[in-house]
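tool_log.txt
---
The assistant was asked to compare two proteins side by side. It first ran the structure predictor on the initial sequence, then on the second. Raw inputs and outputs are pasted verbatim so the downstream comparison step can read them without reformatting.
(1)
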Amino acid sequence: MSKALETAQKPTDQVAVLMVINARQQEEISHLKRQLEWFRRHLFGQKSERRNPDLYSLQLAFSDLGGEGNTPPPAPDTQTVAAHSRNKPAKPTPPAEDGLFFDESKLPVETITLPCKEAEGLDPAQYEIVSEKVSHRLAQRPASYVILKYVRPVIKLKETQTLVCAPAPQGVLDNSRADVSFLAGMVVDKFLYHQPLYRQHQRLGSNGVTVSRPWLTQLTHAALELLRPHSPGSTGIHSHLSGHHHG
């Protein structure tokens, strides 16, 4: 088109050539605007704009635009990866109620021997200790934990050949390994000092105590139930705390 402009001698011919050039440029600009609008709708507004299939026919081919860099980039190389599976981590099994749930090398154990009521006032020659029954409870001292080891000798009365043993110490929760001091400390740490149960669980593990986090949650709910108002004469956590010698 520039050659046609150069060969035109008369001004009228040059004007005619310029008008043709301008018309073609206007047409190309119109096509470019339509293509830009198509890209705006389909690349940046898929969720808010409705697709218009008629716009596909209005696109200009990249080869029609001229210039360099019109060749589409080659498709990236692909690699097939073999499928694999992962083992599901096993959940830790909580320790049995009658087994050791702590590390004796990390946690102090305080032994408490409970006398047998049937042997009170008897001469040692009148009975013999044949075995022992041992139970453990997790207790708490200020800023520390301790295991209370209750030893209850099983004795045999020689006169009647009867085996007797002191009963297990009664706690605020039936058949629980948690001492009342541990319950009180756990609740105070959680609600007064904002110490979450998972952090208390981590602290127990650092001190050699192996218990589950759901166990701490169950103890918390049980302790809160004990704090409900009681009728006159009933026992609750307050009476146990006031008369407890290990708090």
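(2)
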Amino acid sequence: LKTMEAVPETALKIYGQKFKGDFENWIYPDLFPQELHRFVEVQLFQKKQAFVMDHDAGVEVWNEPVYKANYVMRAVPGRDDAIAVKLFLYSAAPLRKDEKERVGTKEISREYNYTLYGKRDADGNLTVDSGTWEKGELVDSRRDHPDYVFSIPNPASIARKSFNPEIDPATVDQIVPNRR
């Protein structure tokens, strides 16, 4: 990913929006729960491809690669048009300064709670049209949820670049072939 860190945002398909500190709006311009749910379904479960997530809904940008997910769904009592979801996303944790010699990935998980709303079709399936972030037992997803997500672009379709002028994408490709 280091050879893609300086790719312009215009080359990325971003779901949600970066929150830039504009507290004047009635709602943060974040990712809505139904958007995150569908994105995870398509990106991880169907395409089996990792993606990048800014896990902080605030002004700070904390992008991390997400490569695994699981969830628990349960009925909402008295609501035929809703389902409660507890989603767990797994990503690579940043290393601490004292872990410079560590090899491999340290996994962390993040929990998100939300309710999806929609209409039931003739087979009883819920066609989702909206969602709300919820307060869970351990995590309050109303305030702690992703700001935005994006899929990792195909390197062949963009000009890869790093903020570090010493990193050359062609050299990286020679060192790590077929790992894109």
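---
observation on (2): The chain has one domain: 2-165. DSSP finds two helices and seven strands in the chain.
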